[in-house]
Design a protein that fits this description.
This protein is α+β, with helices and mostly antiparallel strands and 517 residues long. It folds into four domains: 118 residues, PH-domain like (Roll), CATH 2.30.29; 94 residues, Pdz3 Domain, CATH 2.30.42; 116 residues, Roll (PH-domain like); 100 residues, Pleckstrin-homology domain (PH domain)/Phosphotyrosine-binding domain (PTB) (PH-domain like), CATH 2.30.29. 20% of the residues lie in helices and 36% in strands. The strands form six sheets. A seven-stranded antiparallel β-sheet has the order 11-3-2-1-14-13-12, covered by helices on one side. It has a seven-stranded antiparallel β-sheet with strand order 18-17-16-15-21-20-19. Strands 4-9-7-8 form a four-stranded antiparallel β-sheet. It is rod-shaped and about 110 Å long. The two termini are 26 Å apart. This is SNTG2 protein. GO terms for molecular function: actin binding; structural molecule activity. It is found in: Cytoplasm, Cytoskeleton.
Length: 517
């Protein structure tokens, strides 16, 4: 299915916006601009057209103009009146910029100067025009065919109002002159939407924030292709239109990502499948405000969580990831959601989400992935639906890895002894001497009743003895305590999911948000 619609292309430098037409297919977003094309009678370029108008006693030249050099645009035809001189030529269109009047160049003329020239040009006026493909939206030119007749005329002409040249002007001719009409062998012109830019959506990303800020664009966003080609800033007339287009483009990008994943998975073993991948923004800690976030491409594949600066295209690309972490040793955590128009802080209070980042960051849909040695990566996505997918994908990838791995063993120590600590999906926790392999203690997952740690290397695990019902404390010291704690969390969560999948789903913050909306 193809989606089409009218939008504006916003130019940040000139601060002007231009009318464009968007055409969205499953694989490509095409930007179209209006232009006048020669459809028959001649193959010469429609860029410049020279037309002779005969001023009529009633209706004059039959057109109105807007704009002028004082507004950094040429004078543009803003209205063409039905059955009058301009329309009868078949060669003039709303949006045509007037280049010359009777051989005099008016590209740099003010609005008043062009009006004066046209009104005093005599009964036969020869004008050269060129269609202005990027007419600023402040001119408010209609996009369709010539509008209905109008008797509009203003005492003083303004660049933002039509100056009517359908009036008689200074015509000396009292008898009706023959109408301006196209000659049989004259070229025929039409105004059409023409493709000007095509942006492939495979691995494309959507930018909703103003560059280097946390300010969300109002009803606007930009689409950036994998090769760096940008649509520019697409501005929509209403919030609803913006949301509809954002959803449609995001869906198409996601569908193409799914296709890419299926292609990649054909080359991978069953234990090394891609579960999910896509663009996110990573917040850079301790940098200046102009570089708050940087684009990263994340992937969950096999036993690993990958962070790339650019997407992996070939099999060899997977080894050039910036970071690779074992999925058993990471912890996925949602930080922020917008539940309504009010502050995200209310969502935190309502859902009991722990917030450990500063309150200055105003982006919704944030999550962090906590990794070994107490470090973490803080990410933001553009849509709530993306957040829900990442939450579910991390959960699935971690559970699959736990079940595949079966167990993880870590070296540790206590009171000078070198020990081994094993987390096993079937058996629970076991601690044994690294030299003699003698088992010192073992407990099921259900016996773990609590834990505390010093935030560095030491942890206390509290187990309930099944016979005495007493709590036994086991203290251990690890080189990378965070990784071990994350591993324990992953194994217990996977165990619960295997017993009660509904419980895990009920804990999904992002999906609860999705359904509430």
């Amino acid at each position: 299915q193809t989606k089409t619609g009218i939008a504006l292309l916003y130019d940040e430098v000139s601060e002007n916006a231009y009318d464009i037409r968007l055409k969205l297919t499953k694989e490509v977003l095409t930007i179209q601009k209006q232009d006048v094309v020669c459809v028959s009678g001649s193959d010469h370029s429609a860029n410049h057209r020279t037309v002779t108008l005969r001023r009529q006693p009633v209706g004059g030249l039959g057109l109105s103009i807007k704009g002028g050099a004082e507004h950094k645009v040429p004078a543009v035809i803003s209205k063409i009146f039905k059955d009058q001189a301009a329309e009868q030529t078949g060669m003039l269109f709303i949006g045509d910029a007037i280049i010359q009047v009777n051989g005099i160049n008016v590209e740099s003329a003010t609005h008043e100067e062009v009006v004066h020239l046209l009104r005093n040009a005599g009964d036969e006026v020869t004008i050269t025009v060129q269609y202005l493909r990027e007419a600023p939206s402040f001119l408010k030119l209609p996009l369709g065919s010539p509008g209905p007749p109008s008797d509009h005329s203003s005492g003083t002409s303004s660049p933002l109002f039509d100056s009517g040249l359908h009036l008689n002007g200074n015509s000396t001719n009292t008898a009706p002159s023959s109408p301006s009409s196209p000659i049989a062998n004259e070229p025929k012109y039409e105004k059409r939407w023409l493709d000007t830019l095509s942006v492939p959506l495979s691995m494309a990303r959507i930018l909703r924030y103003k560059t280097g800020t946390d300010k969300l664009r109002s009803n606007a966003f930009e689409v950036l292709a994998l090769d760096g080609v940008s649509t520019g800033i697409l501005q929509f007339y209403t919030a609803q239109e913006s949301a509809d287009w954002l959803r449609a483009m995001s869906t198409n990008i996601s569908d193409l990502t799914l296709q890419n994943m299926k292609m990649a998975n054909k080359c991978c073993s069953p234990s090394d499948q891609v579960i999910h991948m896509g663009w996110v923004n990573e917040r850079l800690e301790g940098t200046d405000s102009s570089q708050l976030y940087k684009f990263k491409f994340l992937a969950l594949k096999g036993s690993s969580f990958y962070i790339f600066s650019t997407p992996p295209v070939s099999t060899l690309d997977w080894v050039r990831a910036e970071k690779i972490y074992n999925l058993c040793e990471v912890l996925f955590k949602i930080h922020k959601l917008w539940l309504a128009d009010d502050c995200w802080l209310q969502a935190n209070l309502y859902l009991g989400i722990h917030q450990d980042f500063d309150l200055e960051d105003q982006r919704p849909y944030c999550f962090s992935v906590m990794v070994g040695h107490g470090k973490s990566h803080y990410f933001n996505v553009e849509l709530g639906s993306e957040l829900a997918v990442w939450e579910k994908s991390f959960q699935r990838a971690i559970f699959l890895e736990v079940q595949r791995t079966g167990s993880k063993t870590y070296m540790c120590s206590w009171q000078g002894d070198t020990l081994c600590f094993t987390v096993d999906f079937a058996l629970g926790f076991t601690c044994f001497d690294s030299k003699t392999k003698n088992v010192l203690w073992k407990f099921k997952f259900s016996q773990l009743k609590g834990s505390s740690d010093d935030g560095k290397t030491r942890v206390k695990l509290l187990f309930q003895n099944l016979d005495t019902k007493q709590i036994e404390t086991k203290e251990l010291e690890f080189q990378d305590l965070t990784a071990v704690l994350h591993c324990i969390h992953s194994f217990i969560a996977a165990k619960v999911a295997s017993v009660d999948p509904v419980f895990i789903d009920s804990q999904s913050i992002a999906r609860r948000y999705m359904y509430s909306n």
